[in-house]
């Protein structure tokens, strides 16, 4: 136990002169009644009140000691301990182009990706994780953070509407998305830096080619895992027609060679997710691969511990008042 204001403990020294004063005062106290002979009282036994005579003073001393301790603010001892945790820096790079509305994954590719990635984020509480989204352009939706509640809130808010409504250009700028994620990781001091890039198409926009972005990632020691999401062949895609929204089978065009090349260049791996289950398995495999042991020193915050002393103080004062008003009450 430690004391935040330990100087107040010096007040305990005052107990010594207080006790000396009480003893000297007791010795000088004169008789309250004078008699010519005390022989008649020699055989009279002592009352229990005699043994309680000094209890009020003792209670007062204890109360004073408790007050000094309370003023010194007793606290539980700080604890430092070395522990081993697993933590890395991760940027999620997610395609939000309109093609991600295809419904070969349920309810669609983007929502399936959000659900699985959210579970991945929740399972890694010690990681710094950020989010980059891209279509024909790319930008950071959330910088790297350990506040995963904020990250998940921003992640759940993304949709393909930003491309469909022209807020950003539609298309698939894989190189731009990857480069944006690299800028967020390049200055990191983490032992392990990872980008997980998910897309359902082939690069058709942007000023930076995917392979150039992969080379940049490698130069900064960043591993890149790529995920191609979508079934083989065709996938049902919602199209606006004069009859309303109709599902039309559209060909699935994923440039797997480019995604494999990115992963190979940046020391990662390429995965193909053709269903919700497969997508979840991909994230689970990446989760197992990317584990880095870190030695950290944990700090336990001080907790105020005055309450037991306060209870003793109140009890002592209460008992003293009770004794003086009952069995030790004197008549003037």
Explain how this protein is built.
This protein has 332 residues and is an alpha/beta fold. The protein contains 11 helices and 12 strands. The chain has a 6-stranded mixed sheet with strand order 6-5-4-7-8-11, with helices on both faces. It is rod-shaped. The two termini are 47 Å apart.
Can you lay out the helices and strands and say which pair or pack?
Elements: E1 2-3, H1 15-28, H2 48-52, H3 55-71, E2 74-75, E3 79-86, E4 89-95, H4 109-122, E5 128-134, E6 138-145, H5 148-156, H6 161-164, H7 174-185, E7 193-199, H8 210-219, E8 222-229, E9 234-241, E10 244-251, H9 256-265, E11 270-273, H10 276-289, E12 293-300, H11 307-325
Parallel strand pairs: 4-5, 4-7, 7-8, 8-11
Antiparallel strand pairs: 1-2, 3-12, 5-6, 9-10
Helix pairs in contact: 1-3, 3-11, 4-5, 4-10, 7-8, 8-9
What coarse outline follows from CA principal-axis ratios?
rod-shaped
- Using the CA coordinates, give the radius of gyration: 38 Å
What series of H and E elements makes up the topology? EHHHEEEHEEHHHEHEEEHEHEH
- Total E-strand runs: 12
Secondary-structure content class: alpha/beta
Tally the helices. Answer: 11
Average predicted confidence as pLDDT: 86
**What is the CA-CA span between the terminal residues?**
47 Å
Q: What's the helical proportion of residues? A: 25-40%
- Percent of residues in β-strands: 15-25%
In which order are the strands of the major sheet placed? 6-5-4-7-8-11
| Largest pleated sheet | 6 strands, mixed
């Amino acid at each position: 136990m430690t004391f935040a204001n330990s100087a107040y403990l010096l007040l305990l020294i005052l107990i010594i002169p207080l006790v000396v004063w009480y003893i000297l005062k007791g010795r000088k106290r004169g008789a309250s009644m004078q008699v010519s002979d005390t022989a008649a009282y020699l055989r009279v036994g002592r009352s229990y009140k005699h043994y309680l005579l000094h209890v009020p003073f003792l209670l007062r001393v204890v109360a004073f000691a408790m007050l000094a301790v309370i003023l010194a603010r007793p606290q539980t001892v700080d604890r430092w301990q070395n522990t081993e945790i697993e933590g890395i820096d991760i940027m999620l790079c997610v395609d939000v182009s309109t093609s991600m509305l295809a419904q070969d994954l349920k309810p669609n590719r983007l929502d399936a990706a959000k659900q699985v990635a959210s579970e991945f984020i929740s399972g890694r509480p010690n990681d710094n994780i950020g989010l980059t989204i891209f279509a024909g352009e790319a930008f950071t939706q959330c910088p790297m953070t350990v506040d995963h509640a904020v990250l998940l809130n921003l992640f759940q808010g993304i949709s393909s509407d930003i491309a469909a409504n022209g807020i950003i250009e539609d298309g698939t700028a894989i190189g731009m998305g990857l480069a944006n994620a690299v800028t967020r990781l390049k200055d990191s001091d983490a032992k392990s830096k990872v980008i997980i890039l998910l897309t359902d198409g082939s690069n058709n926009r942007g000023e930076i080619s995917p392979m150039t972005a992969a080379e940049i990632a490698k130069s900064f020691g960043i591993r890149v895992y790529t995920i191609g999401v979508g079934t083989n062949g065709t996938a049902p895609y919602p199209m606006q027609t004069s009859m309303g929204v109709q599902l039309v089978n559209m060909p699935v065009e994923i440039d797997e060679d480019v995604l494999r090349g990115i992963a190979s260049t940046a020391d990662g791996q390429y995965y193909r997710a053709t269903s919700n289950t497969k997508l979840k398995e991909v994230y689970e495999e990446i989760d197992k691969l990317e584990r880095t042991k870190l030695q950290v020193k944990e700090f336990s915050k001080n907790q105020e511990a005055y309450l037991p002393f306060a209870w003793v103080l109140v009890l002592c004062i209460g008992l003293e008042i009770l004794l003086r008003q009952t069995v030790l009450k004197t008549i003037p």
